[in-house]
Amino acid sequence: MAADQKGTGAGALSGIVVADFGRVLAGPYMTMLLADLGADVIKIERPGSGDDTRAWGPPFADGEATYFLGVNRNKRSVALDLTDPRGLEAARAIVARADVLVENFRPGTMDKLGLGHEELSALHPGLVYCSVTGFGADGGAHLPGYDLLVQAMGGLMSVTGEPDGRGTKAGVALVDVITGLHAGMGVLAALRHRERTGEGQRVEVSLLGSLLSALTNQASAYVGAGVVPRAMGNRHPSIAPYEVFDAQDRPLVLAVGNDRQFRTLCGRLGLPALADDARFATNTARVAHRDELVAALSGPLAGRTADAWFEELTAAGVPCGPINDLAAAFDLADRLGLGARVPGNGDGDGAGAGQVANPIGLGATPASYRSAPPRLGEHTEALLAELGLVPGEDPLP
Fold first, then answer.
1. Which InterPro entries match (predicted)?
2. Per-residue pLDDT tens digits for 116-142
3. Distance (Å, rounded) from C-alpha 39 to C-alpha 17?
């Protein structure tokens, strides 16, 4: 993490209790971030199987799917059957002491269980109730909220991939991650409002809405100018040169963002006159004559290795870099001192697996890595005891 990777000091959200009914990625990713910042997150799971991602492997680490391990650290796991009156009673007891409830069931499911916003907010007026849906709680309630579906139906795949392809998804469940970030910001805003007024409120975030917001310039091109963007491979619709070129040994990315950088690039490539050519003198002109520009730059770039160009052009102020795999990317982060990973402790049951660090740097209340992702139901008995429920007699699943 950015700081205090193994720390146990009070975080910025110390004292905040989160009842986490989230599953898979968007909800759990958001609650992990809250937990990293000090919140006490109680993860409520199905007995027997738990969160679906516990089975989403390979790869596995010490018997746990790395997918699950990646978004569930710093939490306590309680296994409760919410269709059993005893399990439901225990869940309601957890909610009674919580500041925040997070859920991403299909719309209406929590209401049917007796855990809906209207019912719980009447009992706990200060509760921040966060619902994450795929396509909204009204017209899209019948649509399953899987990241791939939203990438397809929300337009991301239409602008990703090669121009003559059929659309390509991002290499990770990007929509889930973006939605988790939006949901977390909504929860923090609601907590701030409660601090001022004592009032809780409902926070609602959808995968589709989050994706459309995150499409930024592409979405703005449509709503602002009526332009429907299409896939352009590694090219940028509004900037040139801003794409992948072949160096002598491997691909190299150029991300030239202004005319000054372009002029410097031309000088380093031995093509100074190119910067004064009317076809390339401005970014708008370069975009209009992109194919001719690429043809002019490709030959010189192919004459040296990617590392050689990276060193020379970066030193000259021209943004460029090789296409790294994740091993090389983490190695880069290590060399830059970012502290992008937390080493495992070798205790087994997933605890020995390394973790990707929280990137938020807070000087006074840094994020911390306090506990490994929990085994299914690991904290059930202890938590029920905290609630005054006697295991074996009171509402266990």
1. CoA-transferase_III_domain (IPR050483), CoA-Trfase_fam_III (IPR003673), CoA-Trfase_III_dom3_sf (IPR044855), CoA-Trfase_III_dom_1_sf (IPR023606)
2. 999 999 999 999 999 999 998 888 778
3. 6
Q: Is there a contact between 186 and 178 (Cβ–Cβ < 8 Å)?
A: no
Residues contacting residue 266 through CB under 8 Å, at least 6 positions apart: 272, 273, 274, 275
Active site residue 176: yes
CA distances from 279 to 23, 276, 351, 366 (A): 52, 8, 58, 50
pLDDT digits (tens, 9 = 90+) for 196-219: 999 999 999 999 999 999 999 999
Residue 78 parent element (H or E) = strand 75-79
What is d(CA 242, CA 319) in angstroms, rounded to the nearest whole number? 10
Cα-atom radius of gyration of the chain, to the nearest Å? 25
Question: Taking Cα atoms as reference points, which of 283, 246, 293, 278 lies closest to residue 261?
Answer: 283
CB of 342 closer than 8 Å to CB of 369: yes
* Residue-wise pLDDT tens digits, 213-252: 999 999 999 999 999 999 999 999 999 999 999 999 999 9
CA geometry: angle 350, 22, 358, nearest 5 deg: 55
| Reduced 3-state DSSP string for 135-185 | CCCCCCCCCCCCHHHHHHHCCCHHHCCCCCCCCCCCCCCHHHHHHHHHHHH
Considering the candidates 20, 84, 176, 307, report the single residue annotated as catalytic. Answer: 176
Helices 174-197 and 26-36 meet at what angle, rounded to 10?
Answer: 50
- Tell whether the torsion through CA atoms of 50, 53, 58 and 63 is positive or negative: negative
Encoded amino acid at 65, one letter: A
Q: What is the pTM of this model?
A: 0.89
The C-alpha torsion from 278 through 284 and 288 to 289, rounded to 10°, is: 40
Residues 6+ apart with CB under 8 A from 75: 20, 31, 32, 35, 41, 42, 43, 371, 373, 374
Check if the beta carbon of residue 201 is closer than 8 Å to that of residue 193. Answer: yes
CA 313 to chain centre: 31
